[in-house]
Amino acid sequence: MLDRFFSLAKNRAKAFGAEYVKLWEALECNTSGGKRFRPRMVMAAYEGLGGTDIHAAAYVGAAFELLHTALIVHDDVIDRDFSRRGIPNVSGSYRDIATTAGIPIPTAEHRGMSVAIIAGDLALFNSYRLIDRSGVTGEVREHLLEILDYALFASAAGELIDVDLSLTAGLPGVDEVLTMERLKTAVYTFESPLQAGAVLAGAPDVVVAALASYGREVGIAYQIVDDLLGVFGLETETGKTTLGDLREGKRTVLIAHATQTPEWSVIYPYIGKSDLSERDATLVRTALEVSGSRSFTERLARSHVDRALASLAHPEIPEPLRAELSAVAFDVLSRVR
Amino acid sequence: MLDRFFSLAKNRAKAFGAEYVKLWEALECNTSGGKRFRPRMVMAAYEGLGGTDIHAAAYVGAAFELLHTALIVHDDVIDRDFSRRGIPNVSGSYRDIATTAGIPIPTAEHRGMSVAIIAGDLALFNSYRLIDRSGVTGEVREHLLEILDYALFASAAGELIDVDLSLTAGLPGVDEVLTMERLKTAVYTFESPLQAGAVLAGAPDVVVAALASYGREVGIAYQIVDDLLGVFGLETETGKTTLGDLREGKRTVLIAHATQTPEWSVIYPYIGKSDLSERDATLVRTALEVSGSRSFTERLARSHVDRALASLAHPEIPEPLRAELSAVAFDVLSRVR
User: Which of A96, A233, A264, B114 has its Cβ near the most Cβ atoms within 10 Å?
Assistant: First the structure.
């Protein structure tokens, strides 16, 4: 679906010049790859609840994937990130073109960010269009649009909390970080796509609610695990440096817990230290273990996975779907093992 | 319609905290005021072509107005502008809150820009929703969504050209500036709203096309006149300083023409001079008159207004609508008299 969408868009862009086609190509590059969680969640719920119009479900999945692209492209502008998983993102590739042309770095960076704002706008607007193009009509269509709408509404609220937290001198508590992570990412990645798949399959409200609840819990668990991997992960597996979160002083559950422990006095000088070394990081990791922050965070992730599994117990959820989603929940946890 | 839309959104935002409600308030502030060109154009075409469902037309008009809000909020981020017509915009008001809290200016500015990216995303996504909420269904709805989609598609293309032009050392030609201005602003301000109003009224394709053509021409004329006012306008009337365009070295039709005249050697040292004085500006204005750039630009605006009026000659356009839109075209020109 996304292939076809981008091919149409690029074709249409030709009338506006080669640069505009390139922008659409950059957007396409930033949409492909990744784990495609959102289409997978839509499809799992849809097929698991007896849906057979794979075409429509693929469009709905693509809509959430394009929403994801829009949100990460803009999030990278907000975070002043020029790469994602080691590859230049939209801001980064356009910055690089400008620096290669001899444009000074601050101007080149702003150019990259400007193009990324435009690209994200196109992705955002078209996520909506893809639901429209699914061919679904009437109440189901209206319901799907409400779900997509809520996903963006929640994500914007989460992004706002994130922006505000990064400005506050004091560090937030565990609950505040959890709320931010849930709204900013978990809702649109798990909760909303599962709801959408269930609604598209014509599932009863109780089933839609049970899947939404599962998605909410597994989504939170996923973010908590991400916080752990950002410090304790293996770079070879995550594709991310395990110094990044510490260097940027990222507000995570792990750190939020640590602030309440005696070990914080050892840890805090390293949080946000832009030239943090591997040796510094080892010290911080040890302190996070001694403080109990690592095990607290692991337990917290497990407790959300438990709640996710409990939501699946609803008798109207067919067994194969329950099995598939249970496996997804275990996969989330296994990332930290 | 927008009042109701914002009141619902603010109510919904309460569950996400007071800061999120404030963000919606800021977005509402940045939507009200202004000339409300887009709803006026939708309504003029709709009522002038016999439409009677004022409720639906108001929603469609509000959709274009919200698209406008999204685009200017993001355009201000791209241009690093923190005010619009002398009043702090979203970036500006959030920057000011941060500086008042003692946050250093670069961080405060980035915070303002970050919040503005989020706010623009919400406005953009919801512009689409408002068409949906108009109650229009079937082919007409699909057609309206295509028109809104094209408006954003064109505007993004224009914004990209603008970003690229501002990076190029050489100055663009008149045609390039005209293309940029048409795509970036004229399409979604005049052409698309008029088309949408006509489609909503069930007008025949030839009438929709005639109004689109009128909108395109009058929209270009409006932008050309804006370029003139940016240098020769009366601040008391435009609410904008007449030094701004020169200080920022804005790519305008006026300047594009001047580059091709012998007077350019006198003018160019002042273009983009950030501390340009009123005395410097007087000298530039005189040179732009001697070079013929002012009269060329005025003639160009008139020729587009002439073409706009010619488009209205189509026999299927009712006389009262022709009269109303002719008046709009003359108003555009009268701003420079």
Answer: B114
Contact: B121, A121; criterion CB under 8 Å? yes
| Sign of the dihedral defined by the CA atoms of residues A143, A146, A151, A157, in that order | negative
**Residues in chain B where the model's pLDDT stays below 70:** 235-240, 337
Would you say A333 and A225 are in contact if contact means Cβ atoms under 8 Å apart?
yes
Identify residue B39 by its one-letter amino acid code.
Answer: P
ipTM score assigned to the predicted complex? 0.94
Contacts of B157 in chain A (CB under 8 A): 13, 16-17, 20
Contact B336, B225 (CB under 8 A): yes
Q: With both helix axes pointing from N to C terminus, report the angle between B37-48 and B192-200 in degrees, rounded to the nearest 10.
A: 30
Q: pLDDT by residue (tens digit) across A285-301? A: 999 999 999 999 999 99
For the residues A164-186, what does the mean pLDDT come to? 91
Give the model confidence (pLDDT) of A90-134 as tens digits.
Answer: 999 999 999 999 999 999 999 999 999 999 999 999 999 999 889
Candidates B160, B168, B248, partner chain A, best to mutate (most A CBs within 10 A): B160
Taking an 8 Å cut-off on Cβ atoms, the answer to whether A111 and B16 are in contact is no
Neighbours of A88 (CB within 10 A): 18
Which CA distances in Å does A216 have to A87, A219, A252, B313? 30, 5, 18, 59
Dump strand ranges (E) for chain B.
83-84, 87-88
pTM comes to 0.95
Q: What is the pLDDT of residue A237?
A: 66
Contact with chain A for residue B153, Cβ under 8 A:
yes
By mean pLDDT, which of A38-47, A217-226, B229-238 is the weakest? Answer: B229-238
Enumerate domains of chain A plus CATH numbers: 204-337 (1.10.600.10)
Q: Given CB atoms, is A152 within the 8 Å cutoff of chain B?
A: yes
Cβ contacts below 8 Å, chain A against chain B, sum to 117
Dihedral (Cα; A270, A276, A282, A283), 10-degree rounding: -30
Q: What does the H/E/C string look like for A252-304?
A: CHHHHHHCCCCCHHHHHHHCCCCCCCHHHHHHHHHHHHHCCHHHHHHHHHHHH
**Looking at the partner chain, which of B12, B115, B125 has a beta carbon nearest the beta carbon of A124?**
B125
Judge: A77–B107 Cβ closer than 8 Å, yes or no: no
Tell if the CB–CB gap between A125 and B128 is shorter than 8 Å. yes
Asked if the Cβ–Cβ distance from B124 to A122 is below 8 Å, we say no
Closest Cα in chain B, distance from residue A215 (Å): 19
Bigger pLDDT: A33 vs B298 = B298
A179, pLDDT greater than 70: yes
Q: What is the mean pLDDT of chain A?
A: 94
Mean pLDDT for the stretch of residues A12-26: 96
Which residue blocks in B30-104 are alpha helix, DSSP H? 37-48, 54-78, 90-100
Cβ atoms of A198 and A214 closer than 8 Å: no
Nearest neighbour of B117 by CB, restricted to A74, A154, A157: A74
Which CA distances in Å does A178 have to A67, A185, A193, A270? 22, 11, 20, 22
pLDDT of residue B240: 66
Of B12, B16, B77, the CB nearest to A117: B77
B51 in Cβ contact with B21 (< 8 Å): no
The angle at the Cα of B302, spanning B296 to B305, to the nearest 5 degrees, equals: 145
The predicted pLDDT at position A276 comes to: 93
